[in-house]
Amino acid sequence: MVTQSKSAKNTEGQAGAWLARIRNARQHLSRSEAQVADWVLIEPHVFVNSPIADIAKRTQVSQPTVIRFCRSVGCEGLQDLKLKLSGSLNGESSIQFTQVEQGDTIAEVSDKVLGNTASALLTLRQEVKPQAIIHAIGLLKSARHADVFALGSSSSVADDAQYKLIRAGIPAAARTDAYMMSLCAARLRAGDVAMFISRSGKTPELIEAATLAAEQGALIIALAPSNTPLAKKADALLVINTDEKRQTKPAMLTRILQLALIDVLAVGLAQT
After folding, report:
1. Tens digits of residue pLDDT in 206-247
2. What strand order describes the sheet that includes 145-150?
3. pTM of the model
4. Cα distance between residue 127 and residue 124, in whole Å
5. What is the distance between the alpha carbons of residues 37 and 25, in angstroms, rounded to a whole number?
6. How many CB atoms are located within 10 Å of the residue 115 CB?
């Protein structure tokens, strides 16, 4: 397994949007794909100039694993990732997180929190796949009814989604009670949509409800990290990857990204 040195962290901090994207996606990759991600984060300039055989050798994985890694972070293949990463390294954008420290002044807290939020939104803008948005909007437009499932910090996002779906003319209900989720999901039918909003993509209650909803014929929309159990159940997946270890309040930042995607869906519904 590749380990990060102090100099590697400095390299990571100076790199741009695509390194941020890889770092955010890393926790949701397979073990072998994560080995490739670790090396990219440490030596991005070497990566973009290395043939696939050398990359596989350096990271101790197979060449197909290198290709799977590229696709897992949203690229068509190795050359596509190299091109996008090269642009990021050349300074197309500088997206980085700054940890809030004990003892920071209010001015410093304000600067860091707002800066982190702006950076995360810029990263999300680059990660969003228009076809996934179009697919989700299509499912909602044709839905007989939509239930929005969420727990914890995502519950307020479900309430917001319910309001905006009703404003768009779609009968909707927010389901934020863990004890009622399975009961509500089991009552859905073909023609209904079940939307799941999750910070981790691994919450057992949400996964159980998604399974039940799918069994009843409902279509699934998920706002969740990639390569998670909930993401794999989705008919339409809107990916939100956040690096929780680098944020003082990960739930707060993720909630902002979730709300932003709900706004995208709401505006898209109004436009179609």
Report:
1. 999 999 999 999 999 999 998 899 999 999 999 998 765 555
2. 172-175, 145-150, 192-197, 219-224, 236-239
3. 0.70
4. 5
5. 9
6. 14
Per the CB < 8 A criterion, the answer to whether 128 and 227 are in contact is: no
Tell me the β-bridge partners of 237: 222
Give the least confident one: 10-19, 37-46, 191-200.
10-19
Question: Nearest Cα to 94, choosing from 8, 39, 12, 27?
Answer: 12
Contact 242, 28 (CB under 8 A): no
Phi/psi of residue 43, each to 5°?
-130, 65
